[in-house]
Amino acid sequence: MHSTDTAMGTPELTVLVPVFNEDDNIEALLARLTPVLERVVASHEVLFVDDGSSDATMETLRRVHAQDKRCRAVSFSRNFGKEIAIAAGLDHARGRAVVIIDADLQHPPEVIEQFVAKWREGYKNVYGSRVDRNADSPLRRMLTRRFYAIFEQFGETGLPNGAGDFRLLDRQAVEALKTMGERARFSKGLYAWIGFKSVSVPFEVAERHAGVSKFSYRKLTRFALDGLMSFSTLPLKVWTYVGVFVSMFSLLAAVYYIVQTLRHGIDVPGYASLIVSIMFFAGIQLLTLGIMGEYIGRIFAEVKRRPLYLVAERIEDDGTVVPLDPARPSITARR
Ligand code: UDP
Ligand code: MG
Fold first, then answer.
1. Cβ < 6 A, ligand 1 pocket
2. CB contact at 8 A, 124 and 169
3. DSSP character for 317?
4. pTM over 0.90
């Protein structure tokens, strides 16, 4: 018996779908996903994590569940973000492997067949690797490329190029991810950090089936900062070197001014250079403080030890709808 066996049994595969206002995509996704799963694995479940949707997503999930009991759902009390939805999905998944897939059909469900084949060969971390990102705007693609390049240079964990959330994780990798309790979650970094026997499967990103991307540039910037700050301390350390450089430079400047004064006496001009250097160093100090603030803010968020997410409702195999149970917070929240 596997350690995650429950009364309801262990499906071979869990497909984890984070959904945020994806009402128009759920049924289209299932129509393509279910035949693939029935062909490829012995048994499966599709676990939707509703990330606080305000459209009819939950009604659709209830209807879908009534038709197919293999579809389950966990619904958050509000929008917590895709990263946290994935963490909750991993907590609730029962399969011997978990495939994470977007709801909008940008990740072709047919690729799961190749994921499973690799898994059966013994790989525990099978990641889809985007062949191209034509589906996104040129600006977003450019920024994504820059981000990967910066992360490559400064991050403490390498990120395989083009690897995203579309992937298969063996139960062992899932359990490893579940031990990581950080609040500022950057899954792409975590997947790489846990290691395990990994392999990539190339796939082509499709156009979104319906609706628009849930990630604004503001959200993406936040996300990129989270990623860099949780996998690199370089922004903190670099100021030591800048500081050393600046003080050496000011020593040289001091020598220069002493020599100048001895040779020509005190001259009043120099106002411009003074103002410029004051502004320059004030700027550097503010920037440094800001970066400290970013890290301290994250430390603050971590030490508060709030639950990662709150579940408002669950739709289970037997059709029961389980509301938030304050008496058993361990099943609804993760610390
Ligand atoms: N998503 C989510 N919570 C959010 C934003 C997005 O669960 O706060 C889900 C969304 O429903 C979709 C997946 O994450 O299934 C990818 O989102 P989206 O397609 O908007 O992102 P993009 O493809 O533009 O990266
Ligand atoms: Mg998308």
1. 18-20, 22, 51, 79, 81-82, 85, 102-104, 106, 213-215
2. yes
3. T
4. no
